[in-house]
Design goal:
The protein is mainly alpha-helical. It has two helices and no strands.
């Protein structure tokens, strides 16, 4: 794929995925986020060195408790 095609694909994906993420009920998203954190925490805590995270954006899981 060309860079322009990749950008177009990413834009299309965001147009579908962001509304879908925002439509997830808060309680469901909170449950999923807690499961993700529980799965990642042992891995993150075992790493000897820097770990990068992102700030949650538009319906993404809030992994800030792992920071």
């Amino acid at each position: 794929m060309t860079p322009a095609e990749i950008l177009a694909w990413r834009k299309e994906q965001r147009a579908e995925l962001v509304p879908a993420a925002l439509a997830i009920p808060d309680a469901t998203g909170d449950t999923w986020t807690q499961r993700i954190i529980a799965s990642l925490e042992p891995i993150v805590m075992a790493i000897d060195g820097p770990v990068s995270f992102y700030w949650p954006f538009r319906g993404e899981p809030n992994l800030r408790p792992l920071m």
